Amino acid sequence: MIRAIFFDAGHTLLDVYGVPKNQLFRVMVEKVVQEAFPERKWKEATRESERFYEKWRHDKSYVHSDEYRKVYYSIGLSSLGISPKESERYIVNLLHTNRFKLSRQIQVTDGGLEIIQELKERGYRLGVISNWDGTLQKVLIDLGIVHYFDVIVDSDWIGVRKPSPFIFQHAIAQLGLPPRQILHIGDSYHADFLGAQRSGMRALLLDSLEMVEITERIHSLSELLDHPWLNGEPSS
Predict the structure, then answer these.
(1) Which of left, alpha, beta for 199 (phi over 0: left; psi -120 to 50: alpha)?
(2) Can you state the percent helix, strand and coil of the chain, rounding each to 5?
(3) Is there a contact between 97 and 111 (Cβ–Cβ < 8 Å)?
(4) Tens of pLDDT along 200-228?
């Protein structure tokens, strides 16, 4: 039986740049690429570029480099059906901005507040485990939601990042519950899903772009409240 639920912060509980992860690529490029594309093409482009980001997200020096950004953009633009020649022209302009230079507009993801309120009312203990920069607790205070969480773990505080088992074990120890009674939800297959599972916790991948073929997946946080694991079906 699940008795506690941990959330990842960025792109799970919080929209870091004011938009969900599945709209991020579009927000970055559509002011430069002023062409109309159907929603399915934007989803495909975002999925492919985010797959590339997922592969390299822990190599911060590379992810902040122009070399990385060129490949990231070219993958997405190619998925939109833009020719290599046109892509080169667009990328020159796109290199003046990127996901890490977008203005931070951190907000609770759409419907997130209602979800954590409902979970708290159902008696679940809640927590956040995030690869963050040391400011996570202040962010949650500023958003007015810090009081919902029994445990907050910011990787910068303890010196290790997900998927290290230590960061999950640190959070588990603070709750004092068996790991199999704790569910972790996050958007990264490696950092969140595998990291939590390897620590003995239950895990769900938040995967609105359907980047990974697994059954333990939800497309949005709104699906969590009706998930069988929280409604009587055994989670083990």
Answers:
(1) alpha
(2) 50, 15, 40
(3) no
(4) 999 999 999 999 999 999 999 999 999 99
Strand arrangement, sheet containing 151-154: 151-154, 125-130, 4-7, 182-186, 202-206, 217-218
pLDDT band at 234 (very low <50, low <70, confident <90, very high): low
Write out the H or E segment, with its range, that includes residue 132. none
**pLDDT confidence of residue 235:** 54
Q: Provide the residue type at 33 as one letter.
A: V
* Whole-number Å distance between alpha carbons of 30 and 42: 10
- The identity of residue 92, as a single letter, is V
If one counts the domains in the chain, the total is 2
Same domain? For 141 and 208 the reply is yes
**Phi, psi dihedrals of residue 107, rounded to the nearest 5°:** -145, 160
Contact status, residue 168 vs residue 160, Cβ threshold 8 Å: no
Question: Which domain covers residue 184, as residue numbers?
Answer: 4-15+107-230
Identify whether the C-beta of residue 71 lies closer than 8 Å to the C-beta of residue 233. Answer: no
Distance separating alpha carbons of residues 157 and 131, to the nearest angstrom: 10
Residues 156 and 77 in one domain: no
- CB-neighbour burial class of residue 160 (10 A; exposed 0-12, middle 13-18, buried 19+): middle
Cα(203)–Cα(190) distance, integer angstroms: 11
Task: Please report the pLDDT score of residue 102 as a whole number.
Answer: 63
Cα(72)–Cα(221) distance, integer angstroms: 27
Regarding whether 152 and 219 lie in a shared domain, the answer is yes
Clarify whether residues 142 and 215 are in a common domain: yes
